[in-house]
Amino acid sequence: MSSIDTWVSDFAAREQSLTGAGVPWLAAMRKRALDRFAEEGWPTTRLEDWHHTSLALLEQQSFAAAQPASVKETVARSRQTEDSHCMVFVDGRYVPELSDIKALPAGAELLSLSQALADAPDQVEALFGNEQRGSATEALNTAFVSDGAFIRLGRGVSIEQPVHLLFISASAGAASFPRNLIQAEAGSHAIIVEHYVGQGSGASLTNAVTRLKLASDANVTHLKLQQEDPQAFHLGVIDAEQDKGSVYNSHSMSFGARLARHDIATRFNGDHCETLLNGLYYVDGRRHVDHHTVIDHARPFGVSREFFRGVLDDNARGVFGGRILVAPGADKTDAVQRSDSLLLSRMAKADARPELEIYADDVKCAHGATVGQINADSLFYLRSRGLDEAHARHVLTYAFAAEAVHRIEPEFLRQRVVAAIQSLVPGGAALGDFS
Asked: pTM here?
């Protein structure tokens, strides 16, 4: 039986037990999404956006049902701060007894997707998207979506404590399909951490979609931290829409999984929007990470900054494909895009494809990409100051990563990323805090 046939059979067996099975619009959308996936199959390298990323290894995997597992130690170890609102999901399902949602200001809602579908399915439908969005992998998420977070910030509402969405892959070889929906109404503000960790789950699959809608003058900082097991597969989508004057800061930190693919997009639906897409990844062994981004300047006076950095060792591979689209009439656009990759071994490989597509005249846009090894002059300078070669290389590696880390605000988020980097890169513990 082919991989696609397996998913079709699995859907037929599980359809009535899926989250929101009794909601008519969702049940119909699930079937259309599965039909699309069955017709298109997994994306292949023949598709331009997937040219450097093969899912052949993923297609060969079989995934079992989730099994009960104790995750209390993982939750305690992964908490961002004790003051955060923490929602815990195990193998894609919300676990209220492990979560900690503190008192929320009036006008703020923080629910599981399953609860939101039961209480307000019409509100969920407005944010959910449809089966035609994105690639076939996103359609598979639509068909099997299990749970996730539903966050609504009312007009002018600010949540002072960060919202920590903790997704734990606990069962060996299980597949999970979370979907997070975030609505920030006019003038609202929040910090949201989307955090994926593994717990001996091996070749598990996480297929996650996060959709955000920012109304006028809303301000959302969003950190995605991916730290799943080295044999896991992670397919992630972040899809944002911004209205006039809104600010969206996105930080994508990818430090785990055998294969990780991150699709990140935002669209400016109003004037004077701002966005920062900041990314950092570290891959070693034969691991593979792919970031594909789109910033759609559909309206004038938009400002975007995009910076992605990758550190690659052994036989690892990193891919960056970034597209900035400036629509007709989007005058006074100010956009900068840059991708930089540091190769720590001769066998590591990085592919970069920065793109600018401009249909307006009065704009200021720039892009660039570099792929290289540690600078010999910088290495000589540090060695002349008494450092041995190994320590000097570690210092320069950290300095390269630090540029991405320094863009993360607030401080406690930055420190979480620092700790993640230190636990991965050789010699990290000896260098201390470089933030």
From this structure: 0.95
Given a contact cutoff of 8 angstroms between Cβ atoms, the answer to whether 249 and 276 are in contact is yes
Burial class (CB in 10 A: 0-12, 13-18, 19+), 291: buried
H-only helix segments in 71-180: 72-78, 113-119, 121-128, 136-144
**Are the C-beta atoms of 62 and 203 separated by less than 8 Å?**
no
In this structure, the strands spanning 93-94 and 85-90 are antiparallel
- Please give the Cα distance from 40 to 36 (Å, whole number): 6
Name the DSSP class of 96: G
For the chain, the first-to-last Cα distance in angstroms comes to 50
Q: For residues 95 and 71, what is the distance between their CA atoms, to the nearest angstrom?
A: 10
Strand spans (E) along 106-204: 108-112, 149-153, 163-169, 175-176, 179-184, 189-198
Q: What is the DSSP letter of 66?
A: P
pLDDT band at residue 1 using 50, 70 and 90 as cut-offs: very low
Instruction: Give the tens place of pLDDT for each residue, 139-150.
Output: 999 999 999 999
Which pair of structure tokens corresponds to residue 387? 């450092």
Residues 158 and 191: their CA atoms lie apart, in Å, by 9
Predicted confidence (pLDDT) per residue in 179-195, tens digit: 999 999 999 999 999 99
Residues 6 or more apart in contact with residue 118 via CB below 8 angstroms: none
Cα atoms in the Cβ-side hemisphere of radius 13 Å centred on 302 = 33
Q: Tell me, letter by letter, the H, E, C secondary structure of 242-274.
A: ECCCCEEEEEEEECCCCEEEEEEEEEECCCCCE
